[in-house]
Design a protein that fits this description.
By secondary structure, the protein is mainly beta. 0% of the residues lie in helices and 39% in strands. The structure holds 2-acetamido-2-deoxy-beta-D-glucopyranose (7 copies).
């Protein structure tokens, strides 16, 4: 099971207080403005250094995702903002990037960590910034097995899309290991998830983008049991890809070899994972029609 840590680390604060999001502010529908205000740019003092932490919570039944809007109004040439995205990648902004309060949007999935370091130098340059964090429910299916150590991260796109209660996917990177077969340990480079619906299949394109690239797709039927895989088309000469039961943890068992699979294939399961070690292929997945 994932632990939810509401870590409130107060780091190197000065005049404007480095106030983190409080646990009581983290609930569905809430909007938090940092450092206050209404989402418009706010003035930064000199010598400011604060790392804002956005840690949307998750447990294995429910979670929240965060929509983050960052506005960069830096003016001082030496002032900067460092964004550490959910995949650990950092982006540095300064007074030449995205100036004028142009909003940058990010999505932080349940259980992920997202950091924004805001640093100004000793001279007050009237630099400004604003961070808006919106929390939304991210229903997690009862069998989404977040306890695997490799996080399955879902968020409900409906609230930011068209209002339908449909889950969607998000790609993120991970360094966890997967044991597939023959006691073979694999580091996968990308991982994403789909929730199935009945009737209309969700089409998935899996590709080996570069040598050594491996990816995992987790397919979950949230509402019932039974997933159908159909319309498999393999476009690479060789195909090293598998369907494993459960999440791609080190005790997963291969239940289908993609290279010689026959379609459509019914899985009497709530979820499975597709592991692509070296193959280009497309297929559809849907829930059993009830
Ligand atoms: C936000 O606050 C600023 C003053 O800080 C004000 O000028 C602006 O009109 C406000 N915007 C909205 C949408 O309320
Ligand atoms: C600012 O804070 C970060 C950690 O949040 C720290 O790594 C960095 O050294 C600090 N920089 C300054 C100039 O204090
Ligand atoms: C960024 O800093 C440079 C050097 O001080 C300055 O000339 C420029 O006007 C600044 N840009 C903005 C948008 O403030
Ligand atoms: C792998 O997943 C299965 C099925 O969810 C679970 O029973 C098992 O404990 C997991 N093993 C590890 C090592 O996480
Ligand atoms: C699950 O079932 C509910 C109620 O029937 C429905 O509103 C929702 O769209 C379904 N979700 C999926 C992912 O099929
Ligand atoms: C499987 O994963 C678990 C949890 O991460 C770890 O404790 C265990 O040593 C792993 N087993 C093997 C055979 O790698
Ligand atoms: C697919 O190929 C693997 C080995 O390449 C073999 O073990 C398996 O039986 C084959 N499955 C089918 C359905 O032909």
């Amino acid at each position: 099971m994932l632990l939810i840590l509401f870590l409130l680390t107060i780091t190197g604060c000065s005049a404007l207080n480095c106030v983190q999001i409080q646990p009581a502010q983290i609930y569905n529908g809430n909007i938090v403005y940092i450092p206050g205000g209404n989402g418009s740019l706010q003035l930064l003092p000199a010598n400011y250094n604060c790392t804002y932490q956005i840690l949307p919570p998750v447990n294995y039944k429910t979670g929240l995702y965060a929509k983050v809007i960052l506005k960069n109004g830096l003016r001082g040439a030496n002032d900067f903002i460092i964004v550490t995205d959910v995949d650990g990648k950092t982006t540095t902004m300064n007074n030449r990037t995205g100036i004028g309060g142009f909003p940058f949007d990010y999505l932080v999935f349940p259980g992920a960590q997202f950091l924004i370091q805001v640093t100004t130098k000793s001279v007050l340059m009237n630099s400004m910034f604003s961070i808006t964090v919106e929390y939304h429910n991210a229903p997690i299916g009862p069998t989404s097995t977040l306890k695997t150590g490799s996080e399955m991260n879902y968020f409900e796109m409906a609230t930011i899309r068209d209002g339908r209660n449909v889950f969607s996917s998000r790609t993120f990177t991970d360094k966890d290991s997967v044991r597939v077969q023959h006691s073979k340990l694999i580091d996968y480079t990308a991982m994403f998830a789909y929730a199935t619906t009945p009737v209309i299949p969700e089409y998935v394109d899996m590709k080996t983008f570069f040598s050594g690239f491996t990816e995992v797709l987790e397919v979950v039927n949230f509402n019932s049991t039974g997933i159908i895989m159909q319309d498999l088309v393999i476009t690479s000469d060789t195909c090293n890809a598998y369907v494993v039961d459960g999440p791609p943890n080190n005790s997963s068992k291969v239940i289908m070899d993609i290279s010689n699979a026959t379609m459509p294939k019914s899985f009497d399961l709530k979820y499975f994972s597709v592991i692509n070690l070296d193959c280009d292929f497309v297929f559809g997945v849907k829930s059993y029609d009830n």
